[in-house]
Design a protein that fits this description.
The complex is a heterodimer.
Chain A: E1 4-16, E2 21-33, E3 37-41, H1 48-56, E4 63-68, E5 71-72, E6 80-83, H2 95-106, H3 110-123, H4 139-151, E7 157-161, H5 169-186, E8 189-194, H6 197-203, E9 206-211, E10 216-222, H7 237-250
Parallel strand pairs in A: 3-8, 3-9, 6-7, 7-8
Antiparallel strand pairs in A: 1-2, 1-4, 4-5, 9-10
Chain B: H1 9-40, H2 51-60, H3 62-96, H4 98-113, H5 120-127, H6 131-155, H7 159-166, H8 172-209, H9 215-222, H10 228-256, H11 258-264
Helix pairs in contact in B: 2-10, 3-4, 3-6, 3-8, 3-9, 3-10, 4-6, 5-6, 5-8, 6-8, 7-8, 8-9, 8-10, 9-10, 10-11
Classes of the chains: A alpha/beta, B mainly alpha.
């Protein structure tokens, strides 16, 4: 039996905005298996980022429980790496120093991890850019750096919160391939939040579909396309069937 | 693939010309125009001395002016340094205490808008006619600017940057040293730049109120006697101190936070 590395059990998250109480997600339950790639899609405001932050331990659920590795999440944990829509690189550090930041925080041997960092730079196609500062890198390059920063300390779980949301379509496709490569070489469990259905299907073993206000799981789609996937597959019949099915569940059938 | 272009020699020269040469040429033209106007319109020295007359006086009274320059320099730099020493812990305390943010910080913001010149006579009354009162005024005018700037730096760190390390269960000191402090450095330097020029203003104001030495004293003593050229020589010295101190801070800024300049481009 393959164990569930992430268990989200009946989780409700409320938070207080300036004036009112916002119900971000309500009674959400799902699990993620070890080494599985799961995408979460949903309209904006469906609480998909909230659930990711709750799994990371950055916020705590109002109701319900989240287990990572069978342990109840009570706060940030070491076995998790996370990247966001904004690369959030520190402008006073070079790309390499940015990637090594988690090691410094965790008190690891920075020299030791430098080799791994340089290998990761090569994997994502950034060889030779280690000593550049963030402002010297394009948006896509910054996002690659942010991805390997999330991976440097070898976490079992990678939480990705719309990491390619701000990139143009071509760069996004390129980075989808980079992410797939990283997933295959690094063998991580990935939970990937996006609002792009095609991207979600392309990358995932399974797509969890959320609805908005309040956020709730409405559908799970198993994607059994062979790996490694290529961009050509995006126009294949099977691929489009998955996209169509997810669209239907989201209620996105535009009739003009 | 890289977005940074290597800066060519030609571009370097161009930047140097527009950065330094152009202002220097403009200044030279203005000074020449001033000189010619004084001669041409026969303006009396007590009304407006020509640049050459000012230089002549500067040379004539050099040792005396140098001594008074030293006094004013000493007062301002000491007031400034004491302000820096007090401002850093104050800012850190405000940044880390919700209570101070709600109590002290708004008062500081309001106090920053109060013209501190107005309290100079009171300070002189409290600290006496000597150097202490000038240092105190220089301290007062620079302290608030540094605190307000540095605190703004600490408080405006984007939460997303903090999340990056909070995710890894970073300790408070780690968040401070790795994120908040470096993030606030450009704010700190912009505070220092305002403070260093203000500290000179503070010292001179103190000298205006009551003193027996310093460039403010010289100006105050020379002007009523229509020794306008001596007053101008003192003003020139004040500008030189101001420029030199400002340039020093700017230099330190380029060394410590080079990334702040690059990013703005």
């Amino acid at each position: 039996m393959i164990k569930d590395i992430i268990v989200v059990d009946n989780v409700t998250v409320e938070y207080y905005s300036r004036k009112s109480k916002v119900l971000a997600v309500k009674d959400v339950s799902f699990t993620v298996k070890d080494k599985e790639f799961v995408s979460i899609v949903g309209p904006s405001g469906c609480g998909k980022s909230t659930i990711l932050r709750a799994i990371s331990g950055l916020i705590l659920p109002t109701k319900g429980e989240i287990y990572v590795h069978g342990k109840l999440v009570k706060g940030p944990q070491q076995g998790v790496g996370m990247a966001f829509q904004n690369p959030n690189l520190l402008p006073w550090r070079t790309a390499l120093k940015n990637v090594l930041l988690p090691i410094e925080i965790l008190g690891g041997n920075v020299r030791e991890y430098e080799k791994r960092a340089i290998e990761l730079f090569e994997t994502v196609g950034l060889k030779g850019f280690e000593n550049k500062y963030p402002w010297e890198l394009s948006g896509g390059m910054q996002q690659r750096v942010s991805l390997i920063r999330a991976l440097i300390h070898n976490p079992e779980i990678l939480l990705l919160d719309e990491p390619f949301g701000a990139l143009d379509a071509l760069t996004r496709e390129e980075l989808n391939l980079v992410l797939q490569k990283l997933w295959i070489t690094e063998k991580k469990t990935v939970l990937f939040v996006t609002h792009d259905i095609s991207e979600a299907v392309f990358l995932a073993d399974r797509v969890i579909v959320f609805k908005a206000r309040p956020g709730k799981v409405i559908h799970e789609e198993i994607i059994d396309l062979p790996r490694p996937r290529t961009l050509d597959m995006k126009t294949s019949k099977e691929f489009l069937e998955h996209v169509k099915s997810i669209r239907k569940h989201l209620g996105l059938s535009y009739k003009i | 693939m890289s977005r940074t272009k290597e800066i060519t020699r030609e571009e370097k020269i161009k930047a140097l010309v527009s950065g330094y040469l152009m202002p220097i040429i403009t200044l030279t033209i203005l000074v020449v125009f001033w000189e010619i106007s004084c001669k041409f319109f026969n303006i009396p020295v007590w009304l407006l001395p020509s640049p050459s007359a000012i230089i002549a006086r500067l040379v004539e009274f050099w040792p005396l002016l140098l001594y008074h320059t030293y006094v004013t320099f000493y007062e301002s730099i000491l007031g400034f340094l004491v302000a820096v020493i007090f401002a850093i812990p104050t800012s850190i305390a405000i940044a880390y205490s919700r209570m101070l943010q709600n109590t002290i910080y708004p008062i500081l913001l309001v106090f920053q808008t109060v013209p501190k010149v107005a309290i100079a006579p009171v300070i002189v009354m409290w600290f006496g006619l000597g150097l202490e009162s000038k240092i105190a005024i220089a301290f007062l005018v620079s302290f608030f600017v540094i605190v307000v700037n540095l605190t703004t730096g600490f408080l405006t760190v984007p939460p997303e940057l903090i999340d990056i390390v909070r995710l890894l269960n970073a300790k408070k000191t780690q968040i401070f040293l790795k994120i908040r402090l470096p993030y606030a450095m450009p704010f700190f330097f912009s505070g220092l730049k305002s403070a260093i020029t203000l500290s000179i203003v503070g010292a001179v104001i103190g000298e205006f109120v009551a003193s027996s030495e310093g460039l403010g004293y010289i100006i105050l003593a020379a002007a009523p006697q229509l020794d306008t050229d001596i007053a101008f020589a003192a003003i020139l010295m004040l500008s030189i101190i101001g420029l030199a101190l400002f340039a020093t801070i700017h230099f330190l800024e380029k060394i410590f936070v080079p990334w702040a300049f690059r990013e703005a481009r």
